[in-house]
């Protein structure tokens, strides 16, 4: 099973759409962090289409989905500004990668940092003495 990891830092070489709309990049990043358990490019693509692009078109042109033809034209014009024809899941995947998310295999196992506890140190010393006697 694979999963997305939390980003370490935001890169400065973002695609033009995200670089021009910094707050959109932050919205996407926050949304991804909140939904890590079900995160996928398709999942984020739905968010971008339903919420982000809808709000951008509404801000720039003032039209909503009630006026479908006008809304679609405004959406095409918005995407055309950034040399995009559509925002497909592969584009979203690339954006997520630029935002610092990685798609990696899930690893089973965990690490507990208890090597300095008194009981652990005592056991290690006793084990070393037993081992050297053998």
Architecture overview:
The protein is mainly α and 134 residues long. It has one domain. 59% of the residues lie in helices and 6% in strands. It has six helices and two strands, in the order E-H-H-H-H-H-E-H. It has a two-stranded antiparallel ribbon. The mean pLDDT is 84.
Overview features:
rod-shaped; single chain; two-stranded antiparallel ribbon; 134 residues; mainly alpha; 6 helices
Shape: rod-shaped
Q: How many individual helices?
A: 6
Order of helices and strands: EHHHHHEH
- Main sheet specs: 2 strands, antiparallel
Overall number of structural domains: 1
Q: What share of the residues lie within helices?
A: 55-70%
Strand content: 5-15%
Helix/strand class: mainly alpha
Terminal residue distance:
44 Å
Task: Set down the secondary structure blueprint.
Blueprint: E1 2-5, H1 16-20, H2 22-34, H3 41-61, H4 68-81, H5 89-98, E2 102-105, H6 118-133
Antiparallel strand pairs: 1-2
Short account of what is shown:
This protein has 134 residues and is mainly α. Helix content is 59%, strand content 6%. The chain has 6 helices and 2 strands.
